[in-house]
Amino acid sequence: MRIRRVNCSGVSRSGGICITFLVVLSMNNAVEWITVATAGPGTDGEPRLMLVANRKDIRVIEVDHNISRVVVDKTNEAVALAFVYSIGTVFWTDVENRRIMRAQVPPGIGSSPLHAAPHNTPTQPHGHQIVISSLGQVDGLACDWLTLKIYWTDSKLRRIEVAELDGKHRKVLFWKNVELPRSIAVVPNRGLMFWTDWGEKAKIERASMDGDPETRKVIVYTTDLGWPNGITIDLEESRVYYSDAKVSQVFSMNFDGKDRRIIQKYEGHPNPSGFTCACPTGVRIRGDNRNCEDGAGNMLFVARKLDIQAISLDTPDHTRMIPLVGVKHAVSVDFDREEGFLYWADDQTKSINRAKLNGTQQYSVINRDLFLPDGIALDAVSRNIYFVDAEARRIQVALLSGKYRKTIISEGLQKPRAVAVDSRGGRLYWTDWGIGMVERSYLNGSRRETLISTDVQWPNGLTLDCENGKMYWGDARHHRVEEANLDGSMRKVLQKDVPHMFGLTLHRGYLYWSEWKQGVLERFHIASGKREIVGSNINDMMMLWAGGVRSEADVMNSERSRIGFESNPCREGGGCSHLCLNTPEGKVCACPDNMTPAGNGKNCIVDRPVLLVASLDGILTQATMMPNNSIHEESSDRIIHDVQDRPSRVEAVIKSGLERVVGLAVDWLTGNLYWTDSDLDRIEISRLNGAHRKVLLWRDLEPSALVVDPLGKQLYWVDSFNEPPRIEKCRLDGSKRSKLVDTKSVAKSLSLDPVDKKIYWTDGESIESVELNGKSRRAVPWSIAFKANRLAVHGGTILLSDERKVWSAPISRPDRAIEVWSSQDQIADLKIMHRSSQLGWNHCALSNGDCRALCLAAPTNNKAYYCSCPTHYTLAHSGPHEGSCVLPPNVLLFAQKGSISRTLVEGDSPDILLPIPARNARALHLDPYSGHIFWLDTKQEQIYRAKDDGTDFGLAFRPTRNESRLENFAMDALSGQLFWVCTAQNTINVARLLPQGEFKQAGVIVELEKPRLPAVHPMKSLLDGQETLYCCHATFTFAGHVRAALGPAADKAT
After folding, report:
1. For the chain, first and last CA: distance in Å?
2. LDL-receptor class B repeat positions in this chain (predicted)?
3. Which of 7, 302, 326, 469 has the highest CB neighbour number within 10 Å of its CB?
4. Sheet containing 694-697: which strands, arranged edge to edge?
């Protein structure tokens, strides 16, 4: 790095100066301009010092001796720099973390030459203080050393701001017609500020330091500029110095932009000539022109991905950013006047948050089980928040604190976005841009109705005027803003040519909307029809909120008059224990998703866990578990009394292809069923109704007990293929198989604790647990001396059973076990059911992930899930069958006496038994066009058909003559013909396929001595229009041509 010094017209000889100096940084033959602040007065006998920021640290340089020393260490991408000599403080910008920092310069710097001054330790990072946060990109800093203020330019937010040196009373000075502001300099004694703007239309401007727009003036225009960067002032000579990086030159001029010449020295000692009082953004100044009102008045809040901006609707100030921490992608915003909290949803952190307007008391109110938050709306009277989870396709409600979440709309949504509350009317409104619809319901989700569904495509923003019975929404596809009555009637277009409208809000007769692509913020006065731009070049705008931000006393009075606080039955909780939801028919006391209403209609109670016990005799019994881990005897009920005498509500879902199922688990999120078959040595999956059955694992496997973790998206099972036995795990699609832990012997039972994230197992002699990552294996001591066959864990309770009894104890105190169950029947398994253990969501939970067969919640190709198919089928990604499951071109069907099986000809795949009720099957044929499998029942001498999943089963063909005997058959699916052998007549016959799917006898093709096995060569018919039929005799084989399907029997065979 090389710093170039140039001579100026004067020399600074007085203290208390905060100015900038221009230098050239030359690296790798590239010329850039960096900003440096002078730190010393340079009087006779004193060293002339200069501060330099080089992104890693801040150094002081003695100009006359080229000696430097680090005074502020580890500054982390410091760019702009400023200094107040009188208080020994240096300021710089941290561009990586988007903030302005400050630190005290070690004492002694400036009082003596660097080579003679004591070597003080530079300021370390722990001594750095944050002055301003929530910035865009600050490229320029300047200090008013008289009134102790700091000015800066923000090229990303396109504005110029000012604040006290401690960051308080931050105010936006200029925001209109600001493109890419760069460097800034101030003249405190004359109240002037200068800045460079190197946007598309480069310029240098001047204005008063109080931001008075009347004083703003362009002093150097685009025609005379290239890339204006650094700027500084010669106070004594009243000259401005600036650098133009495009021509690699430094210029000077007077304060009016005239008399341009080569750079000169600077010097000066300012004296204040006057001042102007100003208030923070959004706060009015009182009539005395000296004091500010107590807080902001009417504000517009804009969610902008990385921050939330506050725009004053009372003052000409533009915006200020609310000092929030950790905002990643804010999408919606709302404000609670009563407590003064700002609420926003962040779809990257997957949370809903709140904070005071000064950034204090910030925390997340909802940050679990939230997948893609979108619109939010507050019910200020009932103290509830309604919010959209777009990915889960649901709308939920909770207290403003985030407690007591309840799902009120979970069906019929595709891409819900904005949501609005009519607290007094007791209704909820929302838009869905996936299906193009505006809907509403009661605040408890009942009485749902569609309001707008025609001539609307992408409804985004939504706002209500409850006093006048109107609603307003924007259509981003049709580029317009519309209005209608609250019931959807009297619809009309208010404004057109609104490109990609996103957020919409209403305040004092004005509609405000954000334009997502062009970064334009507009407002429209409904009564007069006047439309105007509020702000431009505001990138990444999402949703909006506009309203009054007043003191708590004003808030209560205004709120009561505006929405009828006193008449709302849900004020102050409405006497409900958890949620009070107002409706047009009166209040409704609602319960969170994990609770149920009590009998009095006001309180909510926690569901008690239910113990399910299955016996080897096919008896299934349930009983309620009490808080002391005992069983409520009166709640005991046999669901199934006898496996041979099933009640009508019991249904068999898997009827074939099973040998010995020893493990069974339900993925309650996706609606899939998993099981292990210890005789077939495989793990399979299907839908809960048994459809779309698929073999997941079948190699190197001897599985038994099985559990599924839907939220963790993992499958766990006991496997004895290896020595020693182990517990293994894999994803829900069978991929990523790995060992969890080795066991001493084969575990008889597994249980998952989703809260503590542990797996428990017993081998009959001991009980152990391990975390789901395979760490922290522990033995669970047990006070009862017996062999445990089964176990279940839930809510800090562990249950164990032998052949006839069940014991229960807290996991933390297993020595306090008590007997809770005894039975005459031999216990086969036990499970604990509870609502709280089955709360959650994933992408397969809604509409099966829009998959036609299986939805597997296993991450792949940057997706959290994918669609899969039954065994041997593959998913078509293009063509007419896109999205459907199709068989590969080569499969092998084979029949045994009472079954039909299938395997693939190529590749590694398991053979599977098809769920087809075949008996005495001999001949087989697969019609690739209809998907039917045809087979001959040799005892009944009839041909049957069915799909490979057992559906569409029925009779396909039977001979019409009693003396016929059907021995075998062959089919040509292309021509729809069936050739069958009659051994009673020694003939080969043909039948034609009817539209109903059955075959009708058409005639005899040929008589032979003893025909047995026919076969068709369908490709011949494609080539020459003739069928080629092959047949095996009892004594020899022949091949013959048949002229047509109904060719005469006299045709000779070769």
Report:
1. 97
2. 148-190, 191-237, 340-382, 383-425, 426-468, 469-510, 671-712, 713-756
3. 302
4. 661-667, 672-677, 682-687, 694-697
In this structure, how many other beta carbons lie within 10 angstroms of the beta carbon of residue 84? 22
Q: Which two tokens stand for residue 103?
A: 């630190």
Distance from C-alpha of 1042 to C-alpha of 367, rounded to nearest angstrom: 74
pLDDT score of 395:
97
Q: What are the CA-CA distances from residue 261 to residues 240, 249, 347, 381 (Å)?
A: 10, 11, 54, 67
CA–CA gap between residue 850 and residue 844 (Å, rounded): 8
DSSP 816: G
Per-residue confidence (pLDDT) for residue 279, from 0 to 100:
76
Does the pTM surpass 0.90? The reply is no
- Give every CB contact of residue 952 below 8 A, 6+ residues apart in sequence: 932, 945, 946
Q: What's the CA gap between 742 and 720, in Å, rounded? A: 10
3-state helix, strand, coil in the chain (%, to 5): 5, 45, 50
Per DSSP (E only), the strands in 156-247 are: 159-164, 171-174, 181-187, 192-197, 203-208, 217-220, 228-234, 239-244
**Which DSSP letter does residue 292 get?**
B
Tokens 């006497």 map to which residue?
575
Dihedral of CA atoms 526, 528, 529, 532 in degrees, nearest 10, equals -90
Are 622 and 605 in contact, with CB atoms under 8 Å apart?
A: no
* Structural tokens at position 65: 């001796």
The Cα 433–Cα 452 span in angstroms is: 12
- Residue 58: per-residue pLDDT: 86
Using CA atoms, how far residue 57 sits from 48, 81, 393, in Å, is 20, 11, 50
Looking only at the bridges linking them, the beta strands covering 885-886 and 891-896 are unpaired
Contact at 8 Å (CB) between 792 and 761? no
8 Å CB contact between 531 and 522? yes
CB 171 within 8 A of CB 163: yes
Token pair listed for 616: 């080897």
Determine how many CB atoms are found less than 10 A away from the CB of residue 956: 22
Please state, in angstroms and rounded to a whole number, the distance separating the CA atoms of residues 367 and 351.
4
159: closest CA among 295, 289, 309, 384? Answer: 309
Per-residue confidence (pLDDT) for residue 470, from 0 to 100:
96
Per DSSP, 1018 falls in state H
Q: CA–CA separation, 255 vs 239, rounded Å?
A: 6
Please give the full DSSP string across 475-533, using - where no structure is assigned: ETTTTEEEEEETTS-S-EEEEE--TTEEEEEEETTEEEEEETTTTEEEEEETTT--EEE
Q: DSSP class of residue 1024?
A: H
Per run of 10 residues, the mean pLDDT along the chain (length 1054 residues) is: 46 33 35 41 62 80 76 81 88 85 76 55 75 83 93 89 90 88 94 92 94 93 86 90 85 91 50 62 71 80 89 73 87 94 95 93 92 94 96 94 94 94 96 95 96 94 95 95 96 93 94 89 94 86 89 44 68 92 94 87 85 82 75 58 53 87 92 94 94 94 95 94 94 94 94 91 90 92 77 88 87 80 85 82 85 89 87 90 88 90 89 90 88 91 92 90 85 87 90 86 87 80 51 52 39 43
Which pLDDT value is given to residue 686? Answer: 95
Q: Are 588 and 444 in contact (CB under 8 A)?
A: yes
**Bond from prior residue into 584 cis (ω within 30 degrees of 0):** no
Residue pair 20/36 in contact (Cβ under 8 Å)? The answer is yes
Sign of the alpha-carbon torsion through 918, 919, 922, 923: negative
Question: What three-state secondary structure class fits 945?
Answer: strand
How many CA atoms lie within 13 Å of 1054's alpha carbon, on the beta-carbon side?
7
Q: Which of 9, 49, 51, 3 is nearest to 27 (CA)?
A: 3
Separation between Cα atoms, residue 535 and residue 313, nearest integer Å: 12
